[in-house]
Amino acid sequence: MACRSPLAFWVTYHVNNPVGAVLAWVCFRAHLTPNAVSWISLIATLSGPLLLCFWRPTSLIQEALILVGCLQLGYTLDGADGMLARVAKQGSRFGQLLDKLIDSIVMLSLPPLLYLAAGGRQPVEPFGDDGVVVITFLAVLSRGLLATLLWLKEYVERGADRTVTDTRKRNLVFYLRRGVGQTTDTSSFYLLLGLAWAIGLFWWLMALYSLWIFVVWCGYLALTYRDLSRN
Question: Fewer Cβ neighbours under 10 Å: the N or C end of the chain?
Answer without folding.
Answer: C
